[in-house]
Amino acid sequence: GNSVTQMEGPVTLSEEAFLTINCTYTATGYPSLFWYVQYPGEGLQLLLKATKADDKGSNKGFEATYRKETTSFHLEKGSVQVSDSAVYFCAPYRDNYGQNFVFGPGTRLSVLP
Amino acid sequence: NAGVTQTPKFQVLKTGQSMTLQCAQDMNHNSMYWYRQDPGMGLRLIYYSASEGTTDKGEVPNGYNVSRLNKREFSLRLESAAPSQTSVYFCASRDFNEQYFGPGTRLTVT
User: Mean pLDDT throughout B51-73?
Assistant: First the structure.
């Protein structure tokens, strides 16, 4: 089955700092890759995704590139804001192969003004 | 279009009490899911329903039952609550390869 390893948090950064959250995965075949974000007191919501090797997903200034050779999907943002404080989850998923989303423990990000 | 809704938002139970968590989606999705979220554990799948009329166990089904009442609704029942079931519960539905989550139910069992 699928599994994911994310860098442990919490990650604390100052506003405008550069962010990287590492994610590596194991999966059957070639899954699509997702980053979900959970803001305080809310459910998870899709941040970005990439469906095949070398694709780059991007949204709200965040980016992640599907690296098949290293089975990685690291999340980056050039300049974080206080409003980016949240928990970030990486998840591989392959539709129609009897699989379910597998979420790791998440990485908590705190951005200080 | 409300997306995925859950009730209640908060609940406190005594050990041994029963309750049902309600979930509904208005996006006409076939697949629905129940997760629990505990500190440091991420999301763990309790049960899922690939389509109306079918349900399957996930990673942590013990102590729970589910009902897929119709395409819209997927409920989670705790027959005899235990303190180990204190958690935040999320319902989700899936369209192709994206999941949509409800706002969660925070359950405390004393």
Answer: 94
**Residue range B68-75: mean pLDDT, rounded:** 95
Task: Provide mean pLDDT across the span A59-70.
Answer: 95
Positive or negative torsion for Cα B3, A98, B45, B62: positive
B31 SS3 class: strand
Residue type at position B72: R
- Beta strand A62-65 pairing with A75-77: antiparallel
Rounded to an integer, what distance in angstroms lies between the CA atom of residue A30 and that of residue A26? 10
User: Residue A12, Cβ neighbours under 10 Å: how many?
Assistant: 12
pLDDT tens for A5-24 read 998 889 999 999 999 999 99
Is the Cβ–Cβ distance between B34 and B66 less than 8 Å?
yes
Q: Among A34, A36, A100, whose Cβ lies nearest the Cβ of B48?
A: A100
Chain B residues in contact with A104 (beta carbon < 8 A): 42
- Alpha carbon distance B68, B55 (integer Å): 7
B42 closest CB neighbour out of A42, A95, A104: A104
